[in-house]
Design goal:
Length: 338
């Protein structure tokens, strides 16, 4: 079954993806002059609100393995909330209370990647007009949620995906529905495809510091200056090909422009990533011999809640929302042509 909402050059449809065997939302833009500039973004609400497809013309900008999406694996562009990446010892304390992730059986080691990417989300009917196409997905954290024991903070997370001819903007809104202060961190974890290969895909990240990590990739609290001679190998302020990088590191000290750049050289296409001021960290993950790399914009550090409790809130940037209030921010993935 397909339900369609079409206006001008934009369309927003609810369709069934045969590979995922579920309903997905397809947002698209049709360029009236050049089909190589057509854009398509697909989101699977039932599978963690994974933004699993982003196509420009005939080229995929996001790497997706359908079976991994179906099994709630790490692929596409999945949502990390309420705490990005890893949590030391799978536990944390907050305002004198102790909490554990023991109820989250899928966790391997300290890699948590939040509590929502393997859960079904609701969504509102998608819309399209002459300005673009959009859809809002949402998930509630309440006593009925299977992971509420790990994060017993009544809340709602909503994401609005908006596609225009210039790219895609993802806006998040966190609402505190409980009676106590709510701590959180938010991130998106895109697996960027390498349509021109790792040698011809270049990345720029304007950041001044890398967080030193231990053997479990957890921050020690020590900050490394990428401009110093000793740590210059981490400097991404100038474009560098993915083939030269062997990273799984948390960057911070983002410059005022907050503009990361992915250059697909042979396609003559740039992807420019910008964000609101609440996004203070980014993770670069460049596994060897894989058809993707990750550039993850985050509102906080890995293990932010534990770092904050250790008195390192300045580098953790754990965010809080008071009862009855909301917090929001956005990440913009712009497509530019050379």
């Amino acid at each position: 079954m397909t339900s369609s909402y079409v206006q001008s050059l934009y369309s927003a449809e609810v369709i069934t993806d045969p590979e995922l065997n579920t309903s997905v939302v397809a947002l698209s833009y049709t360029d009236p002059h050049d089909p190589a500039r057509n854009l398509l973004a697909c989101i699977a609400p039932a599978l963690g609100s994974n933004w699993y497809r982003w196509r420009i013309g005939t080229h995929e900008l996001i790497h997706c393995e359908p079976k991994e999406v179906q099994q709630h694996g790490h692929t596409g562009n999945f949502v990390i909330w309420p705490f990005p990446n890893r949590i030391r010892d799978r536990q944390y304390s907050y305002r004198g209370q102790e909490y554990s992730f023991a109820c989250v059986k899928r966790i391997q080691g300290v890699l948590v990647h939040g509590l929502v990417f393997d859960q079904p989300w609701s969504y509102t009917p998608p819309t399209a007009d002459e300005q673009g196409a959009s859809v809002t997905t949402a998930i509630e954290m309440n006593p009925d949620h299977p992971y509420y024991e790990a994060y017993p903070f009544a809340s709602r997370l909503a994401l609005t995906y908006t596609l225009t001819s210039a790219g895609v903007t993802v806006t998040y809104t966190v609402r505190n529905k409980g009676a106590q202060t709510l701590p959180y961190g938010f991130a998106l974890h895109p697996y960027f495809a390498l349509p021109t290969g790792p040698e011809r895909t270049l990345v720029t990240l304007p950041a001044t510091q890398v967080m030193e990590a231990d053997h479990e990739l957890l921050p020690t609290g020590r900050m490394l200056d990428v401009h110093s001679i000793m740590y210059r190998m981490f400097d991404l302020n100038q474009p560098r090909p993915i083939s030269q990088l062997k990273f799984d590191h948390v960057y911070t000290g983002l410059t005022a422009s907050r503009e990361a750049l992915i250059d697909h050289a042979d396609l003559n296409v740039h992807v420019r990533l910008t964000s609101t001021d609440d996004i203070t960290h980014a993770v670069i993950y460049t596994p060897e011999e894989k058809p993707f790399f990750c550039l993850e914009h985050q509102t906080c550090s890995t293990d932010a809640i534990n770092l904050a409790q250790r008195g390192m809130q300045d580098i953790a940037h754990l965010l809080e929302v008071q009862p009855g209030e909301e917090a929001s921010g956005s990440i913009h993935y712009a497509v530019e042509y050379r």
